[in-house]
Every structure is written in C-alpha cells, then in structure tokens.
Amino acid sequence: MKSNALHATALAIFLMLVGASIFLVKVVRFDYPVRPGTTASVWTVEAFIDFRARDEPARIDLFIPTQAAEREVTGEQFYNGPFGLNLTGEAQTGNRRAVWSYRFPSNRKVLRYSAQTVGESPSTPLPALFRETADRATPFEADPVKRQAFIVWTQSLRRRSADDATFTELMLTELFGPASRRGEEADEQEVLLKQLPPPLDRLELARQTLASQGIQARIANGVKLIDDTRRAETISWLEYRVGNEDGRFFPDGTPSRFLTIWRGADGPLKASGVSELDFQIAVSSERSSAAALARRAGARDAPVATFFGFGDLPLTTQLVYKTLVTIPIGITLLVFLRQFVGVQTLGTFMPVLIGIAFRETALVNGIILFSALIAMGLAVRFYLERLQLLLVPRLAVVLIFIVIAMAGVTILLTGSNQSIGLSVSLFPMVIITMTIERMSIIWEESSASAALKQGVGSLVVASLTYLVMSNPHVEYLMYNFPELLFILMGMCVLMGRYTGLRLSELWRFRGLANS
Amino acid sequence: MISTWRKLREKGVIGINERNVMFVSAKNPRRFMRRVDDKVETKRLADIAGIPNPELYGVIETARDMKALPALLAKPDGCVIKPACGSQGKGIIVIDGPLREGWRLSSGKRITRDAINHHVNNIRSGMYSLGGQTDKAVIEYRVKFDPVFGRISFKGVPDIRVIVLNGVPAFAMLRLPTAESDGKANLHRGGVGVGVSIVDGTTRCGMQFDRQVVVHPDTGETLTGITVPHWDDILVMAARSYDVTGLGYIGVDVVLDEKRGPLLLELNGRPGLSIQIANQRGLRRHLAAISALDVAGASPESRVRLAQKVYGESYEGGALAPAPVSGKPVLDVLEGGLASAAA
To answer: pTM of whole model > 0.90?
Structure first.
C-alpha cells in the first residue's frame, strides 16, 4: 500500500514536471504571451468544403476574397488534396474564384481555403470601381406588367423624396422596414421581387431601383468577423454611392467588422459532380489562434510549437479543441469539490456536462432552463409512476417529454430572444432524463429535501465549472498551452490519494470533536 | 473549522476518502465484490459455510419467473422482497401476510397484486441496483425479531452492524428503526445507531442524524446498558464472513430472530462511517492496531477473542471507557482470548 502511494505521487510529480517544463520553455524561451492580447487585429477566415465524390469529373467553384487596398489579405492557404486548383478573376465585378477540379475522384473529399485579413469596418471606403458614374439602367423591359409596376413604385419614391440621398433612404426603409412601413406600393414590390432567397430578393430590387436613378449600387456578400465562429453564415448587403458618399446597407444589422468575399447575387459555391456537400466558414482572431503565436515565434521553435499546439489543424477543428481543452479544468474542479469539500451531486460527471451546456445558454438562462426542465420532468415522472410502467420505457417517455418541452421552450423564446431559443437545442437531454430519474428515486426513498439538496448541489457545481470553463483567460491558457493538461492530470492523481476528511465531514463528525 | 479538523484528527476519525483508499480499495479485491453486492451470492456462500441466514424462498429473475411470484408470497407469516443488488435499503418491501386480493405490509398498508408486480419488475429492470444494471428480486424469510430490543425500536427490524477488518471484528453498532426512518434501520433515513462494545455486547451511546441521542426518539427508553444476546455468536459469524468472502474490510449485518437466533442479513463491501459517531470514537487507531496483528490461519473464534482483547486494551482508561458491564465476567473472555492467541 505504501508503494502504491509512492507510485501515485511519483506519477503525479512526473506529469506535473513534464507539463510545467514544456510550459516554461514556451513562455521563457519562445516568448509565448501568457495572457490574451487586448485587441484582435488579424482574422483568419477558413472555408471548409466536405463532399462525397461520385466517380465522375468534379468541379467546385468557390468565391474567395480579392486582394484590395481597402481589405488587405495578408496570407492565403489552399488545401487541395488531389484536386487541380485554378484561380480565376472577373475584371468587371472584381470577383475572384478558386476552381478545384478532378476527373475521377472517389469517396469523401475535403477542400480547404483560409485567408488572413484585417477585415473591413462599415467606414471602410468602397472599391475604386465605384468611383465611375453609371448610366441609368431600365430594368424589366421585357415584361410590361412588371415594367408598369416598377414605374409606379419609382415614381412614388421620387415624388416623396428630395434628392438621391433621401430617395435611397426612403426606398430602403420601405423595402426592409417592418410591414407597417412598407408604404402604399407593397403590392408592386412583391411583384417585382425576383426568385431569390431572402434577403437577396429585396437587395436585388433595391439595386435595380437605384440603378434606374443612375446611382451606383451592388450586392456584396461576405462574413461577419466574430471571434470563434465555427459555422459563420454568409451575409449579403447593398453597397451604393450617392453623390460622393459611400454607403452600405446591411439588412440584418450593421456588423462592427466584416470581410467582403464576392459581389453579385450568386451563392458562395458552385459544385458539379459531387453529392452530400457540406460547406462551412469558420472565423477566429489572432489573439486566440495558436497558429499566429507559432508564426510569431518563428521557425526556431518548430518541434515544440507544432507538437504541443493546435495551430496546424483546420480552423473548425481548432475551434472544437478550444472548447474541449477547457473541460479538464471543469473536471478537476469537480474532483476537488467532491473529494475535498464533499458536495453531493446527482451522477458523477453530470454537473460538468450541464456546465458545458451552460456555455451555449449563458449562466442565468441556463439555470432557469435546467430547473424548469427538471421540474416539468419530475412532474411527468410522478404521474407515470401511477401507470406502473417498466423502467426503460418510462425513461424513454420522460426523454421524449424533455425533447418536446425543449422544443416548446425554443418556440416560445425565439420570439423574444433568439439566442436562447436556438442554443437550448444543445442541452443534454439524456443527462437531464437520468437526473430526473435519480432525483425521483431519492425523492421517494429518502425525502424531497434530500432530492432538492442534491439537485441544488449539482446546479451549484455546474455553475462553478461553467464559470471556470468559460473564463477567457482559462480558455486562452488551456488552448495555447495544452501541456497544462499534464499538470491537471497530475493534480487529479494526487487528489485520488487524498485520505483526509472532507469539509462536509467536519460538519458531520463535529459532535465527535467536542465530546 | 481548523480546530474541529485537528480534534477529529486527534481522535482518529476517518472520512470517506480514507475509507475508500486505505480500506475498500486496498483490502477488497474488485473481483470478490460480487460476493457481497449480490445478495443471492452472499446467501449461497453463507449456506455453504453454514452461517445461518434468513431462508431463501425464491429468486425472480426472468419474466417467466414472475408466474411463480404469487406462490412465493403465499406465506402465512409474511416474507421480504428485496433487490439482490440493492444498496442502502432501497427497494425493500416487508410483507406481513396475505389479504384478499393482495397483501398486508408491515407498515399496515395494503398492497395490490398489480403494485407488487410493478415493484418486482422495477427491481428486475435495475431501478435500485448499484450501477443500474438488470437485477433479480429476492424473496426470503421474514425475520421475527427478538423482543430484547422491543422497548427501543419502533416497528421494523433492528439489526447489528459489525465492521470486520482482516477477519477481526473492530466496531459494532445496533441499528434501530424509528418512526422517522419508516421502520427501516438505515441510519441515513433517520434510524438510530447505538454503539456496542465488542468486549461484551453492551450498548454504549446512541446517535440519530449524526447527532448524539440518549433515549429512543419514539419510545423514550434509554439506549445504553442493554446487552445484545448471543454476542459471541454474532462476532464469530462476522469473523467467518471474512473467510467466506475474502474481503478484508466489510460491514456484516446480523439480525436476531426470536427462534433461530442470529441470522446473517447481508454483507457490505463499503460500510459507512456513522458507526464512529454511534461509538463516539474514531476508527483509525483501532483499525491500525488490528492491521498490526498477525491473524493468518487463526480460527474465527480465536480472532473474536483477539478482537475483544485488542478492543479492551484500546479503550481501557481512554476518554470513553466501555459502559459498566452488567453481570458478565469480562475477565474470562479476555483470558480465553489470550490463551487462544498464544496457542
């Protein structure tokens, strides 16, 4: 037994030494910053295309950002696999495409493109192409009905505006504003909308309307630059120039930073000869990117930096690991709370899983949601008890009920606060179901207060682990110094040999101390 | 808080961490744990070794076995249904006797055939088992407890828990059901634990919900100074449980039946620590003293005498000397123990 204890201590010390030495080498020798930077300057935008090839010639066309003075792309990387890559540019629109092609691909294939850029802000000037004045265009020439509707709509706008600037403002308000402000020509607008996915249909009409008045306008597409977005949606907006003023109109609200990738009403990607296409764009900023750190340190630290870092992985995978590496911190905290404090929880790792779910919902919403789901589930569980169902079917009924309840919550909340409504879907329903079952057994076999005590204990632990796991400093440290995992492992080994009293046992045995 | 910690350390009070690391995982090989976690297996081993235990009426494991249930329950004197792999007294039903279209429970309530079937099915599907795996329902003889504890228990069956280290009984406690524990002797539900001297089986001091108590909360009778009958037999049964299971650190639960005497109720591979409060003593020093003994090859009887000698020495003149012994000559026991240890 003595040798066991010695062995465990030796292992713990070894693990901690390994972790600490790699950490120190990185910090002291290679000047890795141990705190996240204050400003994010360089963004990495990565497009990730995943598809199944069908044994026939395949071609993938992807819009990629153009190098331009107003949005510098400092670096670009292509991951082609066996595909041939061809870069084409269109002088008229300024668009740029990557064309990947291959004659006989098979199985799953992955293509990647990533770019480093400082991005643009709403005050960034529009490209020089916009400086030229345009001729008045007359849309809908071919269709007399639409032509008539268009004239009614533009004449009405002209009548009610003073100049190009007020015309533009009025037109955008009526096209994109709430239904009550659509103006009298709402029917004409509907007729004129093209068969395009929203908001492109209205943007296209706005572009045509502006062009008919001799105002330069184009649809632009790109992504919002928000740190750590794994699946960034492409957004579309309108760029126009009235007089000498550049203007941008974002239908879904103006982002603080964004990157223009292409212009026009086309989709981001065209593919032929493939199926099961999955396309995602991930965004992260330099302060959180290990790749940027490794670059800064230069080639001299190549072995250390590439081995103990995530910099070489695709950006989407990097972002997954960013979350994953914080979980051990939560687990270590849980071990501490159980072994040293003696907090009682429902299920061993259940609080950490709830804590991870809180990442999506934020703390207060998460606690409310969790409590509400548990309360509703318990009510259903007690009702089912009267029907005398067998265990596994009963668990299934409770689980299905939880899914329904979550769907209900999502639908209810989507109206008021979209972010809660969407993130609720990630709540771990199996864990909740098992929690309900455990709580109801404790409730029946011991008492309601014991069940509530353990429920609240679990919630407190979940909140604490969430607060630790979501702390930006903790996240930064764990992500950029994954060798700290060895230290956590060593700590857990040491705690596994702790034989002293728990804090809760001091309370439990207090009568013995004073006898 | 630090002073509490220091005092508890001085008294040798051990916590869950120490129990798990130093005793449960060090003394109880995982492969033998099934012998105590599965009550059917425990009974089988006890029967082989000739340790008396409540008679097994039947085991319900499969859906086909369910047909035999009414016949198994048709005992005029009642029976007990329990999950084979249950813990902490979860899922146990005590049937008093048959009624028309059902049975009468020991609590006086009536239970229908449907409700019994549902309960047995719940047991089988693993609702009460340790890891949630499927389980069996055990139906066994219902103990008619010795009236010696009648004045200090409320409904239910009192039992005796003995902690056995390396086959040497270390600590013992009498567990008494109360109204609050719903007739069950489990301490975490509000049962009363009363420390019992290993030397002579007299009760010393009591506890409920981790607090010291002097009288039974329902009957108001004094808890101390009662001698447990068949004490040496109980200790020998506890000591033999070690030989049967091969587990070095177990809790042995024994009930006293009116006619059949002490019966082995169940064994526990992770016995709780409240026994320290019931005895007003920490376990550590005593367990260390027992660990230091060389008991290899010693018979259960000689180990019991050794246990009584070590216990007497450990607590002689201590802060809490054993309660005054009524009538029984302690010296004889001790000398006998010395003689057999020397032999």
So the answer is: no
Test B26 with A441 for CB contact under 8 angstroms.
no
pLDDT for the residue numbered A465: 93
For residue B280, give the chain A residue with the closest CA.
A512
- Clarify whether residues A332 and A463 are in a common domain: yes
Q: DSSP letter string over B133-180?
A: ----EEEEEPP-B-GGGGGG--SS--EEEEEEETTEEEEEEEEE--TT
Residues in a beta bridge with A269:
A62
Asked if residue A116 and residue A142 are part of one domain, the reply reads: no
Which pLDDT score, from 0 to 100, does residue A17 have?
94
Upstream peptide bond of A199 is cis (omega within 30 degrees of 0) = yes
CB contact under 8 A, B8 and A498: no
Please tell me whether residues A132 and A177 are part of one structural domain: yes
- pLDDT value at A299 more than 80: no
Q: Is residue A403 part of a domain?
A: yes
Q: How many CB pairs under 8 A join A and B?
A: 89
pLDDT in tens, A89-144: 877 777 888 888 888 777 778 888 888 887 788 877 777 766 666 667 777 777 88
Domain that holds residue A207: 128-263
CB distance A167 to A157 below 8 Å:
yes
A109 in the same domain as A141 = no
Residue A277 in domain: no
Structure confidence at residue A287 (pLDDT): 57
Q: Which domain CATH number covers A104?
A: 2.60.40
Indicate whether A486 belongs to any domain: no
Number of folded domains that form chain A: 3
Look up residue A306 and give its two tokens: 């590439």
A511/B210 touch (CB, cutoff 8 Å), yes or no = yes
Per-residue model confidence as pLDDT tens digits over B183-195 = 777 888 888 899 9
> Which of B1, B16, B128 should one mutate to test binding to chain A, selecting the residue with the greatest count of A CBs within 10 A?
B16
ipTM of predicted complex: 0.75
Contacts of A496 in chain B (CB under 8 A): 21
